[in-house]
Design brief:
Pfam families: BPD_transp_1. It comes from Fontibacillus phaseoli. It is found in: Cell membrane. The chain is mainly α and about 280 residues long. It has a single domain, classed as MetI-like fold (Orthogonal Bundle). About 30% of the residues are buried.
Length: about 280
């Protein structure tokens, strides 16, 4: 019996390590390749760099508009996060803790949005933004991101709020708090992990977004980094892979840093929503 458990544990560890290698190896290879010259990438694609050079990174900042794309991406991402967190937190609180006839139907209405594919809305949104003069603007990128992020974000917040005891709110009201004070002074401090979870999930999706930026902007002044990386592919497919890999590494640094620093809060937020508040 013990030997069977040992064999099962060994198999489980082997599977986990194999999955980990499959997930991490492309990232390590990408980073190592960003330090190689184009010739070395062609002749020794899977070896360690012969000379560790930052020339590719220097060329990326000197010869491209990567900093502009990073700035645009940061503006869009953080604007979206502020709106998503504020709207989903307040809407979730209202739907769970403020009893009115349509709250269950409104919650259903919001959650249905999770099932709507982004692709089917691109043409209607494009026509609408063209009519209102919103193409090639930050609003054209922010509005759809917020709209498509709200259903899942509201669902996460409502899951947490459902475990917050009503007695806590009643006690605050008895002490003289109005509904806004209850939310900002009593409820909001309890939702830190949930807020970080919502912000982290949406940060990754918005930072990596390609489809909205590629559809609603063709002006370089508003391009995000996901679309800007296309510029490293030259005419007839000619590509300086060293610079391309360096640019990709720069673009994923914020995502890696976000995951490393906020991972424990995300896990806690998921647990809060799934188990208890």
């Amino acid at each position: 019996m013990r030997s069977k458990k040992t064999a099962l544990s060994f198999l489980l560890y082997f599977i986990v390590i194999a999955i980990l290698i499959v997930q991490i190896y492309p990232l390590i290879w990408l980073m190592l390749s960003s330090f190689k010259s184009s010739i070395e990438l062609t002749t020794k694609p899977f070896s360690l760099p012969t000379i560790w050079s930052f020339a590719n990174y220097a060329d990326v900042f000197r010869e491209s508009d990567l900093l502009l794309y990073i700035k645009n991406t940061a503006i869009v991402t953080f604007s979206c996060l502020v709106l998503i967190v504020f709207l989903s937190a307040t809407a979730g609180f209202a739907l769970v803790k403020m009893n009115f006839k349509l709250n269950s139907k409104l919650l259903l209405f919001f959650t249905i949005g999770i099932m709507i594919p982004i692709q089917v809305t691109l043409i209607p949104l494009f026509i609408m933004y063209k009519d209102f003069g919103l193409l090639n603007s930050y609003l054209a990128l922010i509005l759809p991101q917020v709209g498509f992020a709200l259903p899942l974000s509201i669902l996460i917040f409502t899951s947490f709020y459902s475990y917050v005891p009503n007695e806590l709110i009643e006690a605050a009201v008895i002490d003289g708090c109005n509904i806004y004070q209850v939310f900002y002074k009593i409820i909001s401090p309890l939702t830190i992990n949930t807020t970080v979870t919502v912000a982290s999930i949406n940060f990754i999706f918005i930072w990596n977004d390609f489809i909205f930026s590629n559809t609603f902007t063709n002006d370089k002044q508003y391009k995000t980094i996901a679309v800007g990386l296309q510029e490293f592919i030259g005419a007839f497919g000619a590509t300086d892979w060293g610079q391309t890999f360096a640019a990709i590494c720069i673009s994923i640094i914020p995502i890696i840093v976000t995951y490393l620093f906020l991972n424990k809060y995300v896990m806690a937020g998921v647990s809060d929503g799934a188990v208890k508040g």
